[in-house]
Amino acid sequence: xxxxxxxxxxxxxxxxxxxxxxxxxxxxxxxxxxxxxxxxxxxxxxxxxxxxxxxxxxxxxxxxxxxxxxxxxxxxxxxxxxxxxxxxxxxxxxxxxxxxxxxxxxxxxxxxxxxxxxxxxxxxxxxxxxxxxxxxxxxxxxxxxxxxxxxxxxxxxxxxxxxxxxxxxxxxxxxxxxxxxxxxxxxxxxxxxxxxxxxxxxxxxxxxxxxxxxxxxxxxxxxxxxxxxxxxxxxxxxxxxxxxxxxxxxxxxxxxxxxxxxxxxxxxxxxxxxxxxxxxxxxxxxxxxxxxxxxxxxxxxxxxxxxxxxxxxxxxxxxxxxxxxxxxxxxxxxxxxxxxxxxxxxxxxxxxxxxxxxxxxxxxxxxxxxxxxxxxxxxxxxxxxxxxxxxxxxxxxxxxxxxxxxxxxxxxxxxxxxxxxxxxxxxxxxxxxxxxxxxxxxxxxxxxxxxxxxxxxxxxxxxxxxxxxxxxxxxxxxxxxxxxxxxxxxxxxxxxxxxxxxxxxxxxxxxxxxxxxxxxxxxxxxxxxxxxxxxxxxxxxxxxxxxxxxxxxxxxxxxxxxxxxxxxxxxxxxxxxxxxxxxxxxxxxxxxxxxxxxxxxxxxxxxx
Amino acid sequence: xxxxxxxxxxxxxxxxxxxxxxxxxxxxxxxxxxxxxxxxxxxxxxxxxxxxxxxxxxxxxxxxxxxxxxxxxxxxxxxxxxxxxxxxxxxxxxxxxxxxxxxxxxxxxxxxxxxxxxxxxxxxxxxxxxxxxxxxxxxxxxxxxxxxxxxxxxxxxxxxxxxxxxxxxxxxxxxxxxxxxxxxxxxxxxxxxxxxxxxxxxxxxxxxxxxxxxxxxxxxxxxxxxxxxxxxxxxxxxxxxxxxxxxxxxxxxxxxxxxxxxxxxxxxxxxxxxxxxxxxxxxxxxxxxxxxxxxxxxxxxxxxxxxxxxxxxxxxxxxxxxxxxxxxxxxxxxxxxxxxxxxxxxxxxx
Lengths: 608, 350
Known about the structure:
The complex is a heterodimer of chains A (608) and B (350).
Chain A: E1 26-27, E2 34-37, E3 47-48, E4 55-56, E5 61-64, E6 73-74, E7 79-88, E8 96-104, H1 124-133, H2 146-149, E9 160-165, H3 174-181, H4 183-197, E10 201-207, H5 211-220, E11 227-231, H6 240-248, E12 263-267, H7 268-280, E13 286-292, E14 300-305, H8 310-316, E15 326-329, E16 336-337, E17 351-355, H9 374-378, H10 385-393, H11 397-402, H12 413-417, H13 424-494, H14 497-565, H15 570-607
Parallel strand pairs in A: 1-14, 9-10, 9-12, 10-11, 13-17
Antiparallel strand pairs in A: 2-8, 3-5, 4-7, 5-6, 7-8, 13-14, 15-16, 15-17
Helix pairs in contact in A: 3-5, 4-7, 10-13, 14-15
Chain B: H1 17-39, H2 42-64, H3 69-73, H4 77-88, H5 95-111, H6 123-134, H7 136-140, H8 156-164, H9 179-186, H10 192-195, H11 209-225, H12 232-248, H13 258-263, H14 267-274, H15 285-305, H16 312-329
Helix pairs in contact in B: 1-4, 1-11, 2-4, 2-5, 4-5, 4-6, 5-6, 6-16, 11-14, 12-14, 12-15, 15-16
């Protein structure tokens, strides 16, 4: 018997599971259109590798992630790519995202499949690559790429591999029915994962409210080393952290991952997907979805192709549209409401609840918190929800963080029991969002400051280098001068000093004679020569002025743009404009001078 | 079709505040019944008067504050405050004394601080302490003599007219010092055996009072059983009081014995109904234990060495002051953390 531990808090909400376990899993068939979001996992979105109009075969890769973490998307059936556009996707915000729309041709024609008969003959990395290529991401919750999860950091050895079949959320029975009907595939997939990780312990955990599933798994694991743990039914026992605590008594360190304490959790559906990929060569193109709620007549589980619109599945389950009040994707504790039935089933969609108003009634209006502490009694993370609420509402995020806001798993147990009907989880999400925004802004501001400081430093350095160079040049020049002088002195000392002095005197005399002659000749000649020289000068000056003006204009334009954009080169541009302005003034002055001279010259000429 | 948009969780199964408060009222009935049996109609009349006035004050202030009156009145919290005052005031306290207590409880201690959930002090105890300090005569001389309702106690109409009169004191023959008062003031120059001769003690510990306390204990246990309160505050409270009594007051010729501390006066009412007001109490389990123990210790200190015979109101109010401090230093250890994060977040520099 597997030893079990208890986790703090927890609640026992009405299970509402029997409604959807009456019928076996039904094949949903092929809808008219399949809408395949490019992002169905945590990480980078995939990029389409097909074009509109392409015909694709079932299982063909149609989108892949080439850069960063992520897994490819495959065509769930054969057909033609109809569009690649932004369409509504399953998301709490009801947003649109890029999706490939596939129009099935009804032939359901497979692409070439490559099942692996003996995966043990492959390298572990090769199997991980196959899992990535098969588009497998966690099918229980967040959709973390399975190949990455199965490769924990080098220094982290996984001792315990847990297959999470707890399915603690009310209404959802997808894992329950999978365990009942596909137990062998689950075990086969688990064995592949265990082969990759080589854990010492392999446990399948199932809440004890699913005796049929426990029996089916017991039969399938007979004769293996795999442990089977029927854990007490208490929400949220299927939360990763809680399940690890139940099975090992250990806690995942805050901010860490289970591998930090040598544990890994995988989902039931993920195990089936791995098995089908390895042994059938079938990528992740379908999943089991529970369609339930009082607004459908035949609730149950469907094997649905990824991309099947929710409306199609609701119709198959006998939807009574007039009865639907709230449409929840996921469970009633952590799921989110849908705005439209057009959204497709994706790799992480496990349940759709078409609830009537009486089934999931609108909660009564929020009352003041009286700090009764019921929330703290049920919190599985041992937080103080009432204090977190107080600080979140008062926007005292620092204090909320201090009380470990970010350890909240948003299981909703606190809101479930709140006598004042306070949507506590919503307040925590708000606070977390605000803190994330603040952190991002802080990071941005820090970077800007670093950039500014680096720039200041660089400018200073450049200035210093300039100064340095100038000094070096001056020094070099002084040295050259000194050298020349020294050489001259050397020559003087070596040669005849008297000869040199007489030679110098002769040179001076010659120069004087030349100058005298020049002035005598130049006097009558100068006025005649000058106009001829000035005329082309005027043209050149005008050209210079025009150039300077146009340059000034462009500079001013640039400056204005820079100012409008608040760019950081405004200062530089301002200096440049000032410089150009001076240049224009100088050119104008020069031109004016030249013109004046030109105007006065004919006069002087006539007087001559 | 448009679907309802809600944030998770979508399922709720709460016991609304109004029902929680209703359970508190129900749980107080055994104590009230014992009070009526042993001390006459006084408490019952006080309860009715205080509850009615508390509801009226709440409604009036809600109207002034432009808040939905029905929505807040239906939470029954004003009724509980009135009830607690009615249960703890002297049986023959004149109507205007209890009235002042209720008005200051609801208007000042509760609504002026922001209404339900925002009051740092226990409203009923603010009202009680205010009238205790302001009208010491009315608050100490109006305790009914223990007499069975059907045997010697003043009748309903007599009680009502006494309460309705403007005088501070009731008829002498109907009133008697409380056991705690009597013991405290007589033990200085007498032995315990001599003191206990006084009829207020009866044959047991404190005539009538022991049954009243037993009634509130029973009701309190019901609240714990229903998980409306946790055991931490009452246990801390009683343990603190008992520990002090055992440590300092083992000599009955000097100090009131432990049995009297536990079963006379407002001990059980205080431990299960007053100190457990969640709004003004500490938050975590550890904090609740400390908070309760603090009240117990203070009660012993004031009863023994202070000038008041009983001290639930003062002790609760003093510990209310300490609640923010206690809360900062007693958070639980969160899953995945080595230890609890005590204290207040240190401001990051920069």
